[in-house]
Structure formats: structure tokens, C-alpha cells
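SEVERITY: medium
COMPONENT: batch folding queue
REPORTER: lab tech (J.R.)

DESCRIPTION
The queue accepted two submissions in a row. Attaching both inputs and their returned C-alpha cells so the on-call engineer can compare them side by side.

ATTACHMENT 1
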Amino acid sequence: MSTTTEAAHETESTPGNWRAGVVAGIAGGIAMGVLVVAMNEPTIAVAIPSLYGLAPPAAPAAGLAVHISHGAVLGVVFAGIAGMSGIEDAPKLIGAGAAWGVATWAVLAALVMPLWLGAVGSPASPPFPNFAPPSLLWHVAYGLVLGGVYAATDDSV
């Protein structure tokens, strides 16, 4: 006599496509990084790597690597928000990406980053709060690319 035991595994599907979020976040991070380097290289070379003790001295490659990594993580968060919101068509995803760029600017760049840089004693620490218009432009560009690439790479759209 033999018995067979089957294990039932429930899988929970999370909304959004995290893989598309990573790809889109990297693309957005690269696009934003190009703008930052063109408009204010010390942000990439000193401020961003200073968050993790990687500068000074200036370390633009480290700054870009950190920045693109942040873009990827925030792209996954965007994918979850877009999925939970049921946003599926490209124009709405691009708009949501732009809104996400504004939100990341208002919270992370304008509030968290100055406090963090001050806490680690970075020479690139901006005033608090730091609602700098060029940074808003950079973050909106990130969001537009994020939303567009997410729409193009998410297989459920």
C-alpha cells in the first residue's frame, strides 16, 4: 500500500511588474544622470556618493552607480503603485511616471537628501529644505522615461 502526498502551495501575485520596474528605473536613472552631469556635475560626483561615504574626493562613477541603483529600486516601487492603481495604458503610465518623479523630488531630494548629507558631514550638503527647480526638472525627466519604458516593457500593458 502506498500513499501519495501532495503539497498545495498558494502563490500570491503582487500587482505590477517588478522586472519592468527595474529596467524602467535603470533607464530613467541613466536619463536623469545625463541631465545632472550636464547641468551640475558635483551632484553626481560628490553629493550622491557622499550619501554612502564614497566621496570626497569626487567619484562620478560611484555617484552614477548609486544614482542608477536608486532609480532601479524606485522603479520597483513605481511598478507596485502602478499595479495597485490599475494603470495599464502607456499615456497614463507616462503621466504617473511624471507624478512619481515629482513625488521623489519633493520627498527624497528636497527633504531626505539634505538631512542625510548633513548627518554624514558631506561638503555637498545643501540647505534644508532644498526645493531646487533644476532638481525638479531632473526628477520629472526620470519619471517620464520611467513611465515610458515601463509601458514598453511591462508584458501586461
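ATTACHMENT 2
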Amino acid sequence: MSEVRTGLTVTASDGARLVADLVLPDRLPAPAVVIRTPYGASGCLPEALSLAEAGFACLVQDLRGRHLSEGAFTPGTDETADGHASLDWTAAQPWCDGEVFLYGLAYEAYAAWCAAGHPAVRGIVSRQPWPPIGSPALDEELWWRTDLGTGRTVRTGLYDAALARAPHLTGLIPVAAVAEAWPVDVGPWPATPSTYKSAARRMARAARTATVPSLHLGSWYCRSAPATLRQAMLAPRAEAVVGGWASALTHRLQPECALPEPAGPHPFALALEWLGGFRRNGCLLLGTGRWTDTDPIPPGRPGWTALPLGANGMRLRHDPAAPYPSAPHSADLAPLTDRDDVVRLPLDGPLHWHGTPRLTAEVTTDTGTELVATLVHEQPDGTATRMADGTAPLATGTSRCEVRLAPAAAELPPGHRLHLELTAGRTPRHPAPQRRAELSFRDVTLHLPRPRKGVFA
């Protein structure tokens, strides 16, 4: 039977005490799995018990300034020095055989990569990693900072409670004024593509220089997919599995969600198999089938299929009093089809791609704005859900623009359709102009990265 020890302390280089819980297997010494978390050690207990049953000692540590650990928590900092101090301590314990594996979900994955260069590390499991790449989804970013990413403890439900109490705050999410009326200090706001750039570079550098095997687990349903695939493409000994998994730490599946979580192995089950010495290559598809193990990661220089969508002369008219909304995560978008502030372009199938789609177009606008391109998946019953989106800034006048959308592996079954939607912002996910705007389009082309022969099974 597993032994649980609580309240263990590791002293960081500056003297701060970092508090951890430990679950030990029956046979010692054993290899250790270290989870360093800002979300509270108790939340990782089920995983720790499962790891112990599989023969691993599992140390779950509160990060600096979170829950029981001393110091102040600042996202993106301190994880390398504190992580190395923790691994020094772990590898020297009599219950550890000197080999350490790192596991983490969301910010935990970032903390794991920051410590990946420690000599005791033998492997890394990175699940739906933080930080996001590119333009942040402001509603999701504010939720993360409110409920999970600031202060000493998590505050589950505070974001929803704040908006229920003061619904007008929803319209303020894209602007700095929301911080003045928000119930907690969320730091500099609004977030921009450069907010976590240094942290993203640090994680990418760690993946590129890793000398141990790594397993990358991602979800198409949240904004971690680009970071998951980027890490997997950089790491020299990577395996990747990307599916439609839900996680309360990386995205919010509301009751309005029109996408069920697909059947199949839980990502932690895959991590447990991998840590136990099994290997399962490949990436799950949104539609049917799966990627084969012959090419599990999108190619760095793919071939492209260009799909001209016309749209010459098509216009959208944005009204700041009733902007095009970003519905709750994975909600049915079908009710939003009959509007003047969206250009909707159908794509003929069959369609499949493997990687990061991009859009090119000539756009004329009478005000500076952010163009949002959204791929919408329409099922045979008419349910329409967001598959991927991307943004590009537009200056007043006529210009050529390119929008890079989130990566995906998609093979739409017969009867399923795809639409490209173009909007001026998508409140509150992406900021919209505060004045009326008119956009017109020419030469709209969607470029889909072609899968290599044999990728789809």
C-alpha cells in the first residue's frame, strides 16, 4: 500500500521553503516523478497515487508563493532555480534511485521544462503547456489570471461570479478599464502577444536542447495546441499525441459546449504508459482515423493546397453597439449566421490537413482593426463549432494580410462541412473597434498544409 508523507520542505537558493507532499510505492528506492504546481498539491493526489501504484515515487510541490510555499509567485519566473533545487533534493533522498521524471499540465508543464536540464532528469511529460503562443484570447486569459494564475491560492468560480454580478464587465474585457473594476489584481492588462514572449522562448529553448525523451500531450479544444506542437517539433526525442481532451486548467467547457469529449484513452493514462516504458506514437484526428507513427509531427516545410475562396467585393459592417460575439467555448455558432458583421465562405470537401493553415487576402478598411479568421466545422445536424482561429492587425486603407490559424490535424468525414468566417474582432475573445467599421475583401485564399503520404490511416 502506498505511503503518503505531507509537509516536506525543500530550501530554495534564497532560503525560501517550498512545501511538498510525497507518495511512495511499496518497493524502494524507486524512480521519482516530480510535479511542481501552482494549483495546490492536493489536486494532484489522484495522479500521485496512480504513479505510486505503477512503481514511482511522486513528489508534488507547491510553487514559490503558492498555497503552502513561501515567497511570491510571479508567472514565468523562478522555475529554473527552484526546480533545480527541488531536483537536487529529490535525487539525494534514500527513497529515490537517482532517476527523476518530470510531469506537468498547463503551467506545471512550463515549470517542468524550466528544470529539464537537470542531470537527474530522464524524461519529461508535457501536457497542454503554458504559455500560449501568439495573440491571447482575452476572455480565457482573464479567466486564468482570476481563478488560477494570481495570488496565493486558486479561486475557482470567481471569474464567472464577477461577470454574473456585473455583466457590463464583459464588454470591458478587451480594454484596460476592466482591471480597475475587477475583484482581484490581474496585473498589466490587456495581455498582448508579447506578454509571455520571454517565457515562451525559455520553454522553446529547453525543448530544443533537451537530451532526454519527451511526451507531448495536447488538445485541439484549447489554445495549448500550437505550443504542444511547437515543443514536439523542437525536441529531438519527442513523441506527440493531440486529441480533443478537456482540462479545467487549460480551457473551459461550458454547458453550452457543442463538442463532446471524444472516447479514447485519457491523456494521463497515456502518460502513465509512457513513463512505464511503453511507447505510443501518433496524433489523434478531429475527424476519423488517426495519424500513423510514420510521421506524428507536422512537417517543418509542408506542401500546400491553395483554396481560392473568391469573396471579391464582399463586405462586413461592424457596429460597436452590437459586435460579433465570441460565444462560450465550443458553443454552437449556427444561431450567429444571419448577421451583417461577418463574411462566411464555404469550403468544398473532402478536406484534410496536417499543421498550421494560413489565410491570405486583400482587405480594405476604413478604420484600424484586428481581422479575425475562424474555421468553423459544421456537422450534418447543423451544429457549427469553432475549429481554429487566428488574427492579423489591419491599418486603415487597402493592404495584403496573412493570418496564421491554430494548427490541427483534420480529416472531415462525409457530410461534414467547413466554413471560413471573417470578422472585425470577436468580443470579448479578441478586441473589436470602438467605432463603426466597414471591411471589404478580395482574393481570399486559404492555404492548407498537405499531409505527407501515409500520414492518415
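NOTES FROM REPORTER
Residues 333 and 398 are 30 Å apart (CA to CA).
No errors were logged for either attachment.
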